[in-house]
Amino acid sequence: MMQSALTRELAPLDLKPPHLDILANLYRHAGLSQQELARKLLVGRSNISMTLPQMERRGLIERRGDSRDKRVLRLFLTAEGEALALRAMQIQTALIDRSLSRTPLEDCSAIGAQMERIIAALQMEDDGGAESG
């Protein structure tokens, strides 16, 4: 339901939640490679490679060569992409605030702690899979 609500609220910006995920990650971690971005989003590189050209055509992101490794392209937000990322993150934050406003603080804290444990477990599994794969 949260995903549906976010989709509705991002529609006036002509964004979908996966676009927001990309924008938010590049806002926080400018210069990620496509592979690093896919890993952070827990999606395949093919998912990212289908979405990035659309965002590039819209003038939201740009790819720049890596100064140390010419085979790698780094992803950056344009000024327009950064402005859109900030607006979209505000929409997402407001939606979360509204959704949790009737939930007691201790319940919110418990939910947050559980989510952190899930993330840690997934990261450990991902790290372990990378070593053995």
UniProtKB/TrEMBL annotation:
<dbReference type="GO" id="GO:0003677">
    <property type="term" value="F:DNA binding"/>
</dbReference>
<feature type="domain" description="HTH cro/C1-type">
    <location>
        <begin position="23"/>
        <end position="49"/>
    </location>
</feature>
<dbReference type="InterPro" id="IPR000835">
    <property type="entry name" value="HTH_MarR-typ"/>
</dbReference>
<dbReference type="InterPro" id="IPR001387">
    <property type="entry name" value="Cro/C1-type_HTH"/>
</dbReference>
<feature type="domain" description="HTH marR-type">
    <location>
        <begin position="1"/>
        <end position="120"/>
    </location>
</feature>
<dbReference type="InterPro" id="IPR036390">
    <property type="entry name" value="WH_DNA-bd_sf"/>
</dbReference>
<dbReference type="InterPro" id="IPR023187">
    <property type="entry name" value="Tscrpt_reg_MarR-type_CS"/>
</dbReference>
<keyword id="KW-0805">Transcription regulation</keyword>
<keyword id="KW-0238">DNA-binding</keyword>
<dbReference type="Pfam" id="PF12802">
    <property type="entry name" value="MarR_2"/>
</dbReference>
<dbReference type="InterPro" id="IPR036388">
    <property type="entry name" value="WH-like_DNA-bd_sf"/>
</dbReference>
<keyword id="KW-0804">Transcription</keyword>
<protein>
    <submittedName>
        <fullName>DNA-binding MarR family transcriptional regulator</fullName>
    </submittedName>
</protein>
